[in-house]
Amino acid sequence: MGHWLQRNIVEPGKLPLLLALASFVLTFLVTRLITRLIRAGKGPFGNVQAGGVHIHHVVPGIVLTVIGGFAAVAGGQHGFGSCAAAVVFGIGAGLVLDEFALILHLDDVYWSEEGRKSVEVVVVTAALGGLLLLGFSPFGVNDLSQGELQDRGSVVASVAGNFLLSLVALFKGKLRTALFGVIVPFVALVGAIRLARPGSLWARRFYGRRPRARAKSQLRAYRHDRRWARPRRALEDWLGGKPDPVPLDRGR
Questions:
Q1: Which of 36, 71, 111, 165 has the most CB atoms in a 10 Å sphere around its CB?
Q2: Contacts of 169 (CB under 8 A, 6+ apart)
């Protein structure tokens, strides 16, 4: 394990990326735990206020992201300074993206249905960070054996193929399948060969004169959403907490 870490993480200069990703995920999990305790009225935590203004944690997150980003650019890829900057950047990014929905809607929607977008963005960001981390790039690695070159070549070819299939899945309106398909084999393949979702670029381009395919696409999308909506919501509730119930008189 130590040899693998040295050859594939430390030697290519990916240690700051590993630290940034780890601190990003850990910050999100700890932040969600604290906010859920505050929401439940448990523990010693409470909202931060200054002059009667609620200071959202996206504010220190932006400050830490800027500091960590500039320090990482100045520090290069190696050394203690770059690793420390990566940790600061990861913490800041975790705080910022935990309130992504607030930035998007310019409203405090943290515990609303719209606030689920923050959890989705964090999961996608962590997945893309893992993809960058696990990419076995030969650049920066010295004295590669023939076997290591072949292994890296196979990985690069596999990632490239998955990426092309993910593009097809993306054009078919399957965003999550496209994102995770880059990382997980066969996921993008399934998304690429199945019917496109209604309203996607693929459907508008190829289903315009095929009413049967269009109708089948709509039926399949309805069944898929009905089947997976509850498990997806349960996972999001487990990660980020259940949103507040919508008032019955909302919108009146």
A1: 165
A2: 177, 178, 181, 188, 191, 192
